[in-house]
Specification:
Rossmann fold; eight-stranded mixed β-sheet; alpha/beta; 33% helix; single chain; 8 strands; 4 helices
Length: 227
């Protein structure tokens, strides 16, 4: 009788430990989801940020119209994103923005993914489709708003059509709905981009274009800079 009782106590303790472990995993999963991630990370404007503090020779570049390679976009949004990107490049003071016929380099950008809102799971206990939610029965929580964007960027020599450098840039943000998100360059979230102001998608757009500008700065060869 004593052995059987001890066995039941041991099973109960193991079950409680497993439930605690599942809840802990769910908490860590949700904590991770509530952060914004960029691949590669856009980061903050540090003192040695290539987007700031430049004075010297400049390179002539042109930005072609954004290629819309995914659904959910129109030419108006594509043009607004292009203008936003050009503004970031201009603010680096490294480039002279010219027409394609006058330029040395063309920056070509294709939008591969543009998802303003997608189900990101639940922010409550055991939400987000984790193993814990399956075990615990998927306790209700606040729905999460997940936004993603992916660009393909190419730097092309206009005279030879050679691709000097290229890279895919992706950004993702997950936030609770109703939470206002502040980003710099708010003036660009008007007209075609107004619906994304203060949203996870607005943050994704800002970080994705900022990283695209940073990549452009770091990958334009010095030989294209002229006094």
């Amino acid at each position: 009788m004593t052995v059987s009782l001890n066995g039941n106590i041991l099973k109960t303790d193991m079950r409680k430990s497993f439930q605690f472990f599942c809840c802990l995993i769910a908490f860590l999963f949700i904590a991770g989801c509530l952060s914004t991630k960029t691949h590669p990370a856009a980061g903050k404007n540090l003192p040695d940020d290539p987007l700031e503090g430049y004075s010297g020779p400049k390179s002539k570049i042109a930005v072609s119209d954004f290629e819309l390679k995914t659904s959910g976009l129109n030419t108006e949004i594509g043009q607004a994103l292009k203008e936003y990107f050009i503004n970031i490049l201009s603010n680096t003071r490294r480039f002279v923005m010219v027409s394609p016929s006058e330029t040395d380099l063309i920056v070509s950008v294709g939008i591969i993914e543009f998802v303003p809102e997608n189900s990101g799971g639940k922010s409550g206990l055991a939400g987000g489709g984790s193993a814990a939610s399956s075990y615990m029965g998927g306790l209700l929580g606040t729905s999460l708003n997940k936004a993603t964007m992916q660009l393909n960027l190419r730097i092309v020599d206009r005279a030879t059509s050679n691709v000097i450098s290229s890279r895919d840039i992706q950004s993702q943000a997950v936030e609770n709905p109703g939470t206002k998100i502040k980003t710099p360059h708010d003036k660009f979230f008007k007209a075609a981009l107004s619906e994304y102001a203060g949203t996870p998608m607005g943050k994704v757009i800002y970080e994705c274009l900022l990283e695209a500008a940073r990549y452009t700065v770091l990958n334009v060869p010095q030989t294209y800079y002229k006094d």
